[in-house]
Design brief:
heterodimer; A: 71 residues; B: alpha/beta; 7-stranded mixed beta sheet; 3-stranded antiparallel beta sheet; 10 strands
Amino acid sequence: MKYLFVFPQSRVFLLAMNYVSLAGIKHKVLSMPDSISNDCSMVLEIEDIYLNKTIDILKIKNIDFSIKELH
Amino acid sequence: MLNKYFDNASTSYPKPEAMKKVLASYYDDIVGSYGRSMDKRTLDYSMKVELLRDEIALLIGTNLSNNIIFTKNATEGANLIINGLELSKKKILISYLEHNAIARPIFDLAKRNNIQIDFFPSKEDGSIDIEGLEQLALFEYQIAIINVESNVNGLIQDIENISKILKKYEIEIMLDASQYLDPYHRLQADKLDIDYIVMTGHKKLLGPSGTGAIFIRNPQRVYPTNLGGNAYKSSEWQNAVFDKMPMRYEYGTLNMLGLNALYESLKNYPKISLEQKTWINFIDELESIGLWVLRAKDKDKQGSIVSIIDKNMSNFRDILYYDFGIICRDSLHCSPLAHKFLGSFPNGALRISASFCYHNENDLNYLLDSIKAIRLK
């Protein structure tokens, strides 16, 4: 299972990517699916084993995000 | 080797090696646009733009990093704020030491919108007279604009005490920090409740030209006068005034090259090489040889800029350059208001702007000896 982390704008996405990278969390940058939003053009794809760690880090850093499950 | 460049108030030189490296290598490989491209290299550069925003927030003393907006210079930033404010029929206070970056847009706006501009009560060197300020009917004013450090005589205003008085009357404060701000000279935006700050990257921040930033505390008060594409809510074209910061004000392709270079300048900022005491001694020497020196009266309020006038010498700058290799700037320095107030209008003065990080006592001695030699001729 994989998850998409969606952010409200580029700045927030970039900061989130930085925090996730610094924490050594494996991630992939993908284009924002049109069906989700056009607020920001990119999302982070995270594997399920990193889900909770990613959520914890982003919450600690006050990053605004939402999560979409990928089937 | 002597550093003979004394025009740091125009643009600083030299720059940190790490900054030059970015400029030299940026286009060595694929690089796209901030907020648009998703290749790794572009994302790395884009991320540093955001880290720079955080660094600048630290420098000006605010937790509101999102409210730092990148511009191409201080002038563009000042125009963005001034033209976005609703000031029709309001009264504004400005200092006598304002640069044309502020003076031109504010006087133009005043003409078009029936705005009254008054000057701060000021002392001989342009420093705002705190006691005089308290005598004014301050409740009438909407906003006050202050140049933190003059680009003519280097006077640093007492922002803390001035802002305390202005804030008692809920007057908005806009600071032009172009000549002041660096890692050794910070501001206290949150503590003093400063509303707007204008800054540039290519002076004391040691970045490249084409970089600058502004701070806007309450974005609802400033209408975004520039609109366009910014990869945010791209489906909207009829309603494109957004609340989200910094997207409310940043449109078009960001100067990612310049901003990355500026980031490296700040992360590799040099140590102090010239002490204030040495600089003040140099200024005292200039005065002792009979020059008219435009300076701050209070030595603690003297920044890294000073201007001199020799009434018998109209080509000081040329001789310094051609005979001694020294680079300075003369004339009005885009600050006619300041020169008028200081008594040096319309001819202006020869400005010496030092770098506290790239000059030392030997450089000042060489400059002083050169000036003395010219005057003996």
